[in-house]
Write a structure and sequence with these properties.
This protein has 20 helices and 16 strands. The chain has a domain of 219 residues: Rossmann fold. The two termini are 26 Å apart. The chain has 498 residues and is α/β, with parallel strands linked by helices. The protein binds pyridoxal-5'-phosphate.
Length: 498
C-alpha cells in the first residue's frame, strides 16, 4: 500500500491511508497529513453534473489511494442514505442575501454526522486492507456533538467498540440526554470531571502511553479515534465545500470559477481546515472566515501569529466551540511551513511547556492572506440569532449564530461583497434553552416537555430522532475523575477482547 500520509511531527513516519484511519493519531503525537498535498487536484468543471454522493466518491478516491473503487462506493452508499432527512444531504438555504449550508440533517442533528456516518465504513474497510484482526476501541473526547454522532455511527458495528468522554456540566441538556440514552452493546459513555481540553488531552495522552497500549494489545484490542484528528473524519468534510459551490453555480448565483467566502463556526479547527484543503486541491475560495466565541484564541492567533492558551476557559452558549487547544491547527501550520516537521515538533513542545508559541512571519502572512477572524460575545450571539429570526423567520442554533455575527462584522469591516456560504453546524433543537433565551429574552421552563413546547412555539417539526428522548431509558449515568479513566479503559478491553 502506498505510504500516502506522514506525521506532522516527523516526516519519516509514513503510513498508508488505511493505517492512518485505523491509528487515528501518530504515535509520536503528530497528526497524519498527505505527504504531498499539492499533488492532489480536483477539477471543478468535472463536478458540475454530479450529486453529493458522486462528488464524495471522487474526493475520497484521491485521499484514500489504497481503497478500491468498490470499497469507496460501498462506504459512500451506506453512509449517505435515509439516515439523512434531506435528499441533498447538506442543503444550501438562501436567507436574505446570505447562504446557509445546513450540515445538520443527519441522525444526531449536528454537522459531525456528515463525517461520522461514513467513518465506521472507512474503518471497517481499512481493517480489511491492513488485515488487522484485533478488536478496535475508539476513544472520543467530545464537547457535545462528536460524542453522540460517533456513538450512532459505531453503534453495533462488529469488531469495533467506542467510549465517549464528555465534560460534566459542559454540554447542553439535549446533548446530554442524547448521550445518556445511547443504545448499542458496544457503546460506553462517561461524564468526566474537567472541561473539553482536559478530556482531549487525556485521550491524546492515553494514545501515546506505551504501557496502556501494551496492556490493550495483550487483550487483542487496538485504539483508534473518531475525533477530527483522524483523517477519516476530515476528508468527508471536504465534500460539502465543493457541493455547495456547485449548487451556487447551478442556481446561477455565481459563475464557475468565481471565488467565494466560507464562514465557519470554529472550535477544534477541523471543519475550517477541510475548507482549506478544498481550496488547496482546486476550489475557488477567497476568504475562510474563522468565527470564534469568547474562547477567542484562534482570532488572536490569526491576527497576531501568536497562539496563547494562558487564559481562562469560558463556558458559553456555543459549547461545541469551547476549546482552547484547536488540534487541527497543527495541520494548517504544517502545510504552511512547507511540510517542516521538525518546526512543528518544536512549536508543539513549546505549547506544552510555555502554553504558547509564535509562528514565523512568513507563516503568519500566509494565514492572514487566506483567513479572517473575529469572535462573538455571548450578547452578540444572542442578538444575531434574534435578528435573523425577526428579519427572516429563520432560526439557527447558537454556533451558527456566532458565525452569522462574525460574518456581519467581516462585511462591515472589509466591504467585501463576494458571495459567502455560512456553515450551519447544528439544529436549533440541540440548544433549545439558549435559542429560546435569544428570541424571547427570558428562560424557557425546562422541567418537562421542552422539545414539544419549543416546536409548538416556533412551528418547527420535531426531528424524529428527538421525539420521546425525554422518556427514554438512561443507560449511561456515570461520572469519572480523570485518574480513573485509564483503569476503566483496561477493564473494558478485558470485556471486549477478541
Ligand atoms: C464541533 C462543532 C463546531 C466546531 O467544529 P470544529 O471542526 O471543531 O472547528 C461548531 N459547531 C458545532 C455545532 C459543532 O458541533
Amino acid at each position: 500500500m502506498t505510504k500516502f500520509y506522514v506525521s506532522t511531527r516527523n516526516n519519516n513516519i509514513d503510513v498508508s491511508a488505511s493505517e492512518a484511519v485505523l491509528l487515528g493519531l501518530s504515535d509520536d503525537g503528530g497528526l497524519f497529513v498527505p505527504k504531498d498535498i499539492n499533488s492532489i487536484k480536483i477539477d471543478i468543471n468535472e463536478l458540475i453534473e454530479l450529486d453529493y454522493k458522486e462528488i464524495c466518491k471522487i474526493i475520497l478516491n484521491k485521499f484514500l489511494p489504497d481503497f478500491t473503487e468498490e470499497q469507496i462506493k460501498y462506504s459512500v452508499d451506506n453512509a449517505y442514505d435515509e439516515k439523512f432527512n434531506h435528499k441533498e444531504i447538506t442543503p444550501l438555504k438562501k436567507v436574505g442575501e446570505d447562504f446557509f449550508l445546513e450540515l445538520f440533517h443527519g441522525k444526531t442533528l449536528a454537522f459531525k454526522d456528515v463525517a461520522l456516518s461514513i467513518l465506521p465504513y472507512l474503518m471497517k474497510e481499512s481493517k480489511e486492507n491492513c488485515k488487522l484482526n484485533k478488536e478496535i476501541l475508539i476513544l472520543t473526547a467530545t464537547s457535545g456533538d462528536t460524542g453522540k454522532a460517533a456513538l450512532e455511527g459505531f453503534k453495533d458495528v462488529e469488531g469495533i467498540s467506542i467510549i465517549v468522554f464528555y465534560p460534566e456540566g459542559g454540554v447542553s441538556k439535549i446533548q446530554e440526554l442524547q448521550m445518556k440514552t445511547q443504545e448499542g452493546k458496544n457503546t460506553y459513555v462517561y461524564a468526566i470531571e474537567g472541561n473539553f481540553d482536559d478530556a482531549q488531552n487525556m485521550v491524546k495522552q492515553i494514545f501515546n502511553d506505551n504501557d496502556v497500549r501494551e496492556k490493550l494489545y495483550s487483550n487483542n484490542v487496538a485504539l483508534s479515534s473518531a475525533n477530527s484528528i483522524n483523517i477519516g473524519r476530515l476528508i468527508p468534510q471536504i465534500v460539502y465545500y465543493f457541493s455547495s459551490y456547485i449548487k451556487l453555480v447551478k442556481e446561477k448565483e455565481i459563475n464557475l470559477g468565481d471565488k467565494i467566502n466560507y464562514t465557519v463556526p470554529t472550535g477544534n479547527f477541523g471543519n475550517i481546515l477541510a475548507g482549506y484543503i478544498a481550496k488547496t486541491i482546486g476550489l475557488p475560495v477567497n476568504k475562510l472566515i474563522c468565527a470564534a466565541n469568547e474562547n477567542n484564541v484562534l482570532t488572536d492567533f490569526i491576527k497576531t501569529g501568536e497562539y496563547n492558551i494562558q487564559r481562562d476557559f469560558i463556558k458559553t452558549i456555543s459549547p461545541s466551540m469551547d476549546i482552547l487547544i484547536s488540534s487541527n491547527l497543527e495541520r494548517l501550520i504544517y502545510f504552511m511551513s512547507g511540510g517542516n516537521s521538525s518546526y512543528i515538533k518544536n512549536i508543539m513542545e513549546e505549547l506544552k511547556t510555555n502554553k504558547k508559541y509564535k509562528v514565523d512571519s512568513s507563516i503568519k502572512n500566509q494565514i492572514k492572506d487566506l483567513f479572517w477572524s473575529d469572535f462573538s460575545t455571548e450578547e452578540e450571539t444572542l442578538s444575531s440569532l434574534k435578528n435573523l429570526y425577526q428579519k427572516y423567520g429563520y432560526i439557527v442554533d447558537t454556533h451558527t449564530a456566532v458565525a452569522y455575527d462574525v460574518y456581519n462584522k467581516y462585511k462591515e469591516k472589509t466591504k467585501d461583497k463576494s458571495k459567502t456560504v455560512i456553515l450551519s453546524t447544528a439544529s436549533p433543537f440541540k440548544f433549545i434553552e439558549s435559542v429560546y433565551l435569544a428570541i424571547e429574552s427570558k428562560k424557557i421552563d425546562t422541567d418537562k416537555d421542552l422539545i414539544r413546547k419549543f416546536s409548538k412555539k416556533y412551528n418547527l417539526n420535531i426531528p424524529k430522532e428527538l421525539s420521546n428522548i425525554e422518556e427514554k431509558k438512561k443507560y449511561h449515568d456515570e461520572i469519572l475523575s480523570i485518574d480513573k479513566v485509564e483503569g476503566r479503559i483496561i477493564q473494558i478491553s478485558e470485556k471486549i477482547r477478541g
